[in-house]
Amino acid sequence: MATPADKLWRNARLATMTGDGLGVIELGAVAAVGDTISYVGPDAEAPDAAQIIDCEGRWITPGLIDCHTHLVHAGKRAKEFEARLEGATYEEIARAGGGILSTVTATRAASEDELVASALPRLDQLIGEGVTTVEIKSGYGLTVDDELKMLRAARRLGEVRTIRVRTTLLAAHAVPPEYRGNPDGYVDLVCNEIIPAAIGLADAVDAFCEGIGYTPEQTDRIFTAATTHGLPVKLHAEQLSNLNGAALAARHGALSADHLEHLDAAGIAAMAANGTVATLLPGAFYFTREERRPPVQALRDARVPIAIATDCNPGTSPMASILLAMNMGATFFRLTVAESLRGVTVNAARALGIDGGTLAPGQSADLAIWNISDPAELVYRIAANPLHARVFAGL
Question: Kind of pairing, strands 367-370 and 387-391?
């Protein structure tokens, strides 16, 4: 007889995300003791529990994970969207002082309280779609004080909402205007001051390795500083061009390399050899009207884990819908239903360096319960949300 549980969700169909696919259990149950899953398996063998929830045949998946967002920011960039509609490119806008730097100006002017307040509606949209873990990057401050302000705001979001927040220091997002002409001087600041100051506030360090961002040599210096301070790394790589950033990130043991439209075979091989997750961001692909797709089949062939995220940000992916991100990943990149769901559960957890994203004993009791008859419905519907209930840490 199984040990009695505090809660039992029974009469459910489970997509456990264990193994290589969905890990389906047709008539299953999930039990929790406190905030931890204690049983996953056939309903007939489930333990007794103090509280029993009849799921009435609904599907249960792990709580969803959005592993790449820029939720904390101030300002809006709708005028840039209009400029792109009229023919301007992302790079042209950025080089003219728009893009990331326009958000930097607004974010520097905002207080920490204002950043929290402006991020909450975006976060609530994700929570409303079953997200239980979210990664939030800095990167719109570009000074010691403003980067720390963003990280504190991100951490506070996890205090005012029932969600797990992982913070990423993205101080190397753009070269700040005061360092224009001296990007290496700013890299010195990132390595010597910002990274050490972020210890305890950041769970990882990221950079934008691109022609309008940071060179591979500068990125290498930043990653060396991060790992020296015990922080794992991840990278915006191969979005607009191929600077071999993914291979560089993999050599540093990066948790993930993200975007990857211009990823080549050498980068894929390096990621496969080092266990680096490929995080695809179809919202940015769609919004910037890119035409080159990430090499999904080559990633499959190399058995590189694929994650999907919203990339929620003000300039290139103003989208706070993980369900839409899955649909876009399937539609634009031809991901399967299983790949899409694993991309926002177990592989997203790997991209954050955390244990989770499955229904298994010992995992946090983070569940999403859905009014669906088949898991494919979570991927194929547009502007529909079939969430019945969301459980975070057993509650």
Answer: antiparallel
Q: What is the DSSP letter of 2?
A: P
Distance (Å, whole) CA 90 – CA 151: 26
List, for residues 336-372, the tens digit of each pLDDT value. 999 999 999 999 999 999 999 999 999 999 999 999 9
Per DSSP, the three-state class of 144 is: helix
By the 8 A CB rule, do 153 and 108 touch?
no
* Integer Cα distance of 70 and 90 in angstroms: 17
Query: Beta partners for 202?
Result: 199
- The amino acid occupying position 335 is L
Q: Which of 175, 118, 121 is nearest to 149 (CA)?
A: 118
User: Within 10 Å of residue 55's Cβ, how many Cβ atoms?
Assistant: 22
Taking the C-alpha atoms of residue 245 and residue 103, their distance in angstroms, rounded to an integer, is: 25
Give strand pairing partners of 36: 33, 364
Q: What does the buried/exposed string (b/e) look like for 318-338 if buried means 16 or more CB atoms within 10 Å of the residue's CB?
A: bbbbbbbbbbbbbebbebbbb
Pairwise CA distance, residues 306 & 321, whole Å: 18
Alpha helix positions (H), the chain: 78-85, 90-95, 100-109, 112-127, 144-160, 183-189, 195-198, 216-228, 245-251, 265-274, 282-287, 296-301, 322-333, 337-343, 346-352, 377-380
Give the integer Cα–Cα distance in Å for 153 and 138: 9
pLDDT in tens, 162-180: 999 999 999 999 999 999 9
Give the chain's largest Cα–Cα span: 70
Q: What angle do CA 257, 144, 310 make, to 5 degrees?
A: 35
Residue type, 130: G
Residues in a beta bridge with 8: 31, 52
CB 284 within 8 A of CB 311: yes
Choose among 233, 181, 177: nearest CA to 208.
Answer: 233
Give pLDDT, residue 7. 98
DSSP assignment of 113-126 equals HHHHHHHHHHHHHH
User: Which helix or strand (DSSP H or E) is residue 288 part of?
Assistant: none
pTM for the whole structure: 0.96
Q: What is the pLDDT of residues 127-138, one digit of tens each?
A: 999 999 999 999
